[in-house]
Amino acid sequence: MKKKTIFIYDESYFLHNAGNGALFEPVSQYIEANGSVESPESKRRVKNLLEKSELMAQLEQIKPIAATEAQLELFHTKRHIENVKHLSETEGGDCGDSAIVSPGSYEIAKLAAGGAITAVKSIIEKEAFDTAYVLTRPPGHHAESDRGLGFCIFNNVVIAAKYAQKELGIKKILIIDWDAHHGNGTEDAFYDNNTVLFISLHQDNLEPIGRGKKEDQGKNQGKGFTINIPLLPASGDAVYKYAFEQIIIPAADKFKPELVLVSAGQDASIFDPLARMMLSADGYREMTRLTKKIADKYANGRMVCLHEGGYCPVYVPFCSLAIIEEMSGIRTKVNDPFIYAMEGTSYKELLLHQKQRIDEIKAFLKNTIK
Hints:
By secondary structure, the chain is of the alpha/beta class. Helix content is 37%, strand content 14%.
């Protein structure tokens, strides 16, 4: 029997207010507030495109169940949780660094983390499903144990992974983070852990500055279980595929995960305002295909994608659709309406300096991880 793909979202996700885009006094003196780039528009349009394409009717829609405080504490400190709760119940504010909590955001953020837990629990406990896409908002991969960071309040993927290990009997988890920005919070959570293999592909030295270096490989028993692949700006479809073939797939073959989680940020697209990468929707489709092959080979197909970044409100939906089509094995009649704008660029090419960067990382890992 062909297994179905789960889609999880809640209308509350679109109600979180990430700020007005003029956070700092010198900025607000000169420009009109424009709203945060981490807005609900791109995410709501993902849901709308799934419906318009008629793919939604072929997915299993499940409502998220909010995470409990005990589940949040699988990673976060009580101080951070209480701070978010206080800000949410009062006038709002920043719970870390550019991680705005608006009135009501605490309950929404619990629902986002709970969506990740709901997805993992569903694909492990229910025979009818093996893949899930969670339209989480706010995102999570930057959030650290004791503070929020970069639009992220609670770390959805970390909480889901820790829940899977503590409550569902999963021993080995692969987390692939293809957001254009480094998943610093996720890395921190498992840096000395050899039961989670964390692999991050990101634009070199983008955000957070100084994180995601190839030399950062974990410590103690976790040495070698963190793999950072800092890619050069303007890396496109061919570059990401080459990184998968040369580094990610061989590492997964060695690790043999029982569950695959993806921090699915779509801010590495060619149209994104917060990065300088060149992925197309088909590039995301190909990464999904390669990741699903890993899940099929080792994890009984169990794969969960958690929505992270992605700030082009008209292109993110097409990238998300490509991911979900590939996960579900269902192709719709929708074609990428923006692909014409990429013609003449190098997004399909593996240029020499891009290949050299990946080859250098591969050689470095081979020489340092025993």
